[in-house]
Structures are given as C-alpha cells and as structure tokens.
Amino acid sequence: HSAALTAQKRLGPGVRTVSAFHNVAGHKLQTDEAIDCDVLIFGDDPKDRAIVADLATAAGLRGVHAGPLANSVAAEALTSVLIGINRNYKSDGAGLRITGI
Questions:
Q1: pLDDT category of residue 92 using cuts at 50, 70 and 90
Q2: Does position 54 have pLDDT exceeding 90, yes or no?
Q3: What SS3 class is residue 58?
Q4: Which of 3, 30, 48, 49 is the most buried (most CB within 10 A)?
C-alpha cells in the first residue's frame, strides 16, 4: 500500500489527490541549478496530473504521466532504492530518467 493511497483514503473521495516528486532529491529543488531527472506523476484524473506536470515544468523538470494513484506505490518503493544508489556511488541525488518517449 502507498502513502498516497493512504492519504486519499483519509481525505475522502471528494479530494483530488496526485502523487509526484518521489524520486527528486529535495535539496535539489531548493536551488536554481538544473536537475537531471524526470518527475513521475500519479493520479486518477488526467487533468489533475496535468496540473502537477505544469508544476514540474515550472521547476525545470519533465513531468511524466505514470498512471493512476495506485501506481505510486512503485515510485515510493524506488525512493529507498535511490537512497541506496546515492550511498553506494556517493552521489548527490541520483534520479530517474524515462527514455523512449
């Protein structure tokens, strides 16, 4: 189960819930430097995902529509994988890049 689905359940069906920015290092979002990764965006309504894609674009990132909110469990799980990669390679915030689209 994902944090996003838990939040949606607690907030109720009338609340528009979108999940994104899981795999972007927070400290990188606080600078003006270019961030070399994509933002996976999950939500049940494509219009809501589009709003968050616009936010990603405003931050200089590419938003990738990644399907319904239930899919966010995969991105949440990848966060711990990226933390391990950062430790192993002494990286300052490895991210994801979706290719072929």
A1: confident
A2: yes
A3: helix
A4: 49
